[in-house]
Amino acid sequence: MRHFFSERMSGLDKTLIRRIHDLADSSSINLGLGELRFPTPKSIMEHVREKSSEWNLGYTSNEGLAELRGLVAKNCGYAVSPDQVCITVGAEEALFGLLMVLVNPGDEILVPDPGYPAYPSIVKMAGGTPRAYSLYPEDNFALRSEEVKKNVTAKTKVIIINSPNNPTGAVYSREELRSLARLLDEKGVLVISDEVYRDIYYEDEPDSIARYVQSFVVINSVSKSFSMTGWRLGWCIAPPELAKLFASFHQLAVTCAPSISQHAAVFALKGLAEAEKRQNLEELRRRRELALRCLERYTDLRCLKPAGAFYIFVDISRKISRYGNSLEAALNLLSKEKVVVIPGTAFGQRGEGYLRLSFAASAEHIDEGLRRIGRFFG
Ligand code: PMP
């Protein structure tokens, strides 16, 4: 069969995250989750139940409902026209399509290490070369423009940044974003800012590089902010010419985002589900505190206190010699203690010596999972 497959797909098997999840069974404690298990806000569900028979649920225009594009433009916090907005099948489609539209063979795309694994994989599929810029634990995984600068070459076209960050939970400061913006303007590099966790924060409200830089694309979705992962509804905001070209890709790939999800998102972006969104954030804040307390109580592992998203990147470097590397540690933890965590190397070489724990799990699972992790690392 293999000889039928395109070269584009070579080396692109399942991600490490999927492979670990596949090894787990229903009795495992899952601290590997990449999604909130909160239900979609009741107010959104009720609105859909009441109104959906009145909606036209055929195709929408390729770029999405005008009302929704208008709301995205109005809510983003900087001046853009609704024409620059395209409604997508989650942020993932936006990311995929943008890289397809932007990358030529030989182009270098800067991606964070550690970072969301889809970035380098999609860059490779698009025929480009991912080039990692490092984020350092001794720096609290902050974004350093000097580090980015070291990696900019004549071939650099795009940089992807992600704040609040998966997997570290770091939120980039205004100074970091401004300093990066100055560098990118000087070098003529386009930034794709992945802001899917922008509404999930526990300290200062995350800022966006879009306020400071000349050439940017922002991608976002209702997946994390409204616990609506399965509705597959996101968007990108791009410079006008790029938005047009992206819309051509989008038309060919998916025609339009699901129309029922677009209507639900209109309700959400009008601010009509804010109370539940706030409650969910408060619940996440409690789980974050619980996870940090349990880490301290049951283990002697160090971590960065996450300022956003719902992940804790835990340092196991002092314990790793027993297992060889973080993948082996995670596999052993799963087989001996039935706890799912994601090895740091799923996010790049710089993730070695770390495990990503998600506190999107229930309070019972957080407590019991960390108790077992404490026993395991002893
Ligand atoms: N970016 C990051 C950093 C993510 O963690 C995810 C989801 N795991 C996505 C993008 C994609 O989100 P969605 O397609 O559900 O909007």
Describe it:
With 378 residues, this protein is α/β, with parallel strands linked by helices. Helix 4 packs across helix 5 (118-125) and helix 10 packs parallel to helix 12 (363-377). The protein has 2 domains: 7-40 and 275-377, Aspartate Aminotransferase, domain 1 (Alpha-Beta Complex), CATH 3.90.1150; 42-272, Type I PLP-dependent aspartate aminotransferase-like (Major domain) (Aspartate Aminotransferase, domain 2, 3-Layer(aba) Sandwich), CATH 3.40.640. Strand 5 (156-162), helix 7 (174-187) and strand 6 (190-194) form a beta-alpha-beta unit. It has helices at 16-23, 42-51, 66-75, 90-102, 118-125, 145-151, 174-187, 240-254, 259-269, 274-298, 326-337, 363-377; strands at 29-30, 85-88, 108-113, 129-134, 156-162, 190-194, 216-221, 234-237, 302-303, 311-315, 339-340, 342-343, 354-358. 4'-deoxy-4'-aminopyridoxal-5'-phosphate is lined by residues 34, 90-92, 116, 162, 166, 194, 196, 221, 223, 229, 234.
Per DSSP E runs of 2 or more residues, the count of β-strands stands at 13
* Contiguous uncertain segments of 5+ residues: none
Which CATH class of the largest domain is shown?
A: Alpha Beta
Q: Taking all residues together, what is the mean pLDDT? A: 96
Q: Note the main sheet.
A: 7 strands, mixed
Strand order of the largest sheet: 2-8-7-6-5-3-4
Task: List the ions, cofactors and other small molecules found in this model.
Answer: 4'-deoxy-4'-aminopyridoxal-5'-phosphate
Shape call: globular
At the fold tier of CATH, the topology name of the largest domain is Aspartate Aminotransferase, domain 2
